[in-house]
Amino acid sequence: MKNKPDAKGTPNRKEITHARIVETAxxxxxxxxxxxxxxxxxxxxxxxxxxGFYAHFASRDEMxxxxxxxxxxxxxxxxxxxxxxxxxxxxxxxxxxxxLSEEHTANxxxxxxxxxxxxxxxxxxxxxxxxxxxxxxxxxxxxEAELSAQSSANARQDAMFIVSTMVxxxxxxxxxxxxxxxxxxxxxxxxxxxxxxN
Length: 198
What we know:
single chain; mainly alpha; Tetracycline Repressor, domain 2
């Protein structure tokens, strides 16, 4: 349910509250997964009463779709910001190092939603899957644009390979209870993509 800002373009109270719920849900789904994210818990964490939920969303799935979209948008924004501040020839390598860093591995609640939620996505409602799919396509598109700028002959295919490798590696690095293996998985992926020395 979309809320319109006032005539001056300033968000109204309902819009601000709506955004707070979605932001809270976006953190919660990454932290606890979709199945571990209940409406009552989200509303409580947002400092709101459970009864106010339906003033903002028609269903839990509608909220989850917005949360998935926001979480994905945050991943896209971090990538765009990184690309804006790193020399063109170093962008993809820097992205991989940041993405597969120890810090990102540890910060699941604010990190990449694709890695945090990928294994659950096939069980979600169509609108939740569609929101996440849209953001995954955007991420692939960003990487593809960088590869195209480097005159890559197979930019689209290579972009899908890079994104799926980063996401899959991060998922496994977080999944294992062996710290050495977690580090080794990330290092192996980085070694594979390391710039070749002339």
